[in-house]
Design a protein that fits this description.
279 residues; alpha/beta; BirA Bifunctional Protein, domain 2; 6-stranded mixed sheet; 3-stranded mixed sheet; 37% helix; EC 2.3.1.181; Octanoyltrans_LipM/LipL
Length: 279
Amino acid sequence: MREKRQWRFIDSGSLSPAMNMAIDEALLTSHSLGETPPTIRFYTWDPASLSIGYFQKAEQEIDFEKVRKFGLGFVRRSTGGRAVLHDQELTYSVIVSEQYPGIPTQVNEAYRVISNGLLKGFQQLGLEAEMVSLASEAEKAKYVSAGSAACFDSPSWYELVVEGKKVAGSAQTRQKGTILQHGSIILDWDVEMLFDTLKFSSERVKERLKASFLEKAVAINHLSDKKISLSEAKQAFFKGFEEGLGIELQRGELTSQEQTLAKQLAEQKYGSSDWNWKR
């Protein structure tokens, strides 16, 4: 029996939005230089934060008065996609070379392979999750509502669904020959708060899109009477990534170089208005 490949696992706990995005980029850089193995990281956010996709127009799409009112953090991601409210969730990131054995060259197929770890994690929690291919426009239409800036309203090529509803939102970027995929595993959510922080052409449009959103997406703890804790989610998805990717996770920490680079990126990039308000 062939030995499983070993990846590094980091649980970095609860950090600021700027530091969370800075660490993901630092991990990508160190792996691209061959200094570290493929890595999976789990993290949460302090304070609860709104992140937007790289291509979003911050001032046009986000109500910053409400962001301040709710005491939320704010950051622009290096990945695409739409706005995400990071609150009662487990966030994950996967950093792996484009040349890693078994990683497809096509973005959508690489997404499918990496997300298999998420699929197995949901199954570890006893949920009947499945990965649905959105190859056709008709299939995509089931999981998207035009006009909403909320990430869970934006379908990927493959969606993880339970009882027909989307249960995870992920985004991917490729830089320096390395893939960074990160995303949200929502335990519970405040949909009112999320939609209050987004701008809409009218209150009627907002309510219509919110209703559509709730028809197409769901948080884990809305699926059963048994409430899943953050620690239970971490255990399930740790095992899920091992099984789904056929790897063995070795618990580790950031290297000193990664720590230094992350601090620099948090201060000069992800914590700066130039980056966060650039569009």
